[in-house]
Amino acid sequence: MLLICAILTIFFALILKYLTRSFFHPSVIVGLAWGITLLLYLVVEHPLWRLSPEFLNVFTFWVIPFMVVSYTVSYHPNHIAYSTNNLSYNSKLFNILFPYVVILSILLIVLLIHYSGGVGENLRTFMLEKNKYPLIIRILIAINTFTIIYSLYALLHYDKVGKKRVILLITLLILISFLKSAKGAIFRIFIGIVFILYRRQSINKSKLILSTIILVILLILVTVFRNDSTAQQDDAFIKYLYIYILSPITALDLLINQEVNPIIGTNGSASFPFLFTVLNIFGLDYTFTENPGWVTVPVFTNVYTAIWGFYSDFNWVGVFIFSIIMGWVWGIVYRLQQAGNQIALLFYSATCFSLIFQAFGDFFIESFSMDIQMLIYCIILSNGVKISPTNKNSNFPQLKIFK
């Protein structure tokens, strides 16, 4: 039954691809990501445990409503996207920010190496101890979130920005992600670049193949650089694929069947960690539900797909309801960017990678504060900001949005 479900999900996603004319539509991404992952799990030889029938229910309650709702919300009789050639470009703001972005990125690279005592094991150990970061490192890492949006904005307007500056920005981003051993950041950058090129109609098969090869090489290097347990074996990369593609499904199945249990906190905190963090800042004392941590499936994993929080808080009903909500959100964002809204286009390019990796982990809800920051940066770069002189009714300078 699981095999039939996987095949039907892929088939449904391909139908939606035909209707939307895009592999980047959220319904297509989620359908193919979950369907292909489940199909691989069932047909490829691996050491992971067999999935239970109960997994099918949760799978269906998440994937199908998401696909239907995101397609319905974003539906338009004419699925042709508006050209990116007419998007506004604020050369004054971009040129003012460019030297600061480059200098601060280089400074982050230098300080990461300096404070860790070098690359390799020293840097890896340093990056794992986030609570011990010097203040300057914390600030520069926070600024790096802006650099991601800034670089995608530059790529979107590379004919005006200049290819050399775009290449410099992206190279710095990748180098920082490599030093941080941040595989998620590398995926975010890669998928964002591909989507921007796709929207600019500048992507072709040779560019896509070359980019994919570079991505695979980077991921292998990061795996070795991090000294992951799998990298100690001759079949390191195969085990790496087990962990980062297939094993989270097994872990979720264990959670569904209560063979492992989350660390219970306030109800809803697994689904909305950002909200409860904000509430605690204002003096409340909510506890957080945490996933069960490292488990053997039989390889070690500590990720439980993107839906573990909804299931832990509200069972399958929560999975179904939040599938509808998330499908609606992503459908709206996609339709806006399709209609030529630059804010939505930049935001979607920076976050749509999370849809591809839903069967692995949550890169959207759990990093919601970062998502909000990115949305603000998208607004600033798309509309511009300026400080005007104080007026007679205020003692403070006035911050205004302008194009």
TrEMBL record:
The chain crosses the membrane at residues 23-43, 55-73, 93-115, 135-155, 167-196, 208-225, 237-256, 268-288, 314-333, 345-365. Keywords: Membrane, Transmembrane, Transmembrane helix. It comes from the Bacteria. The keyword Secreted does not apply. This is Oligosaccharide repeat unit polymerase. It comes from Muribaculum gordoncarteri.
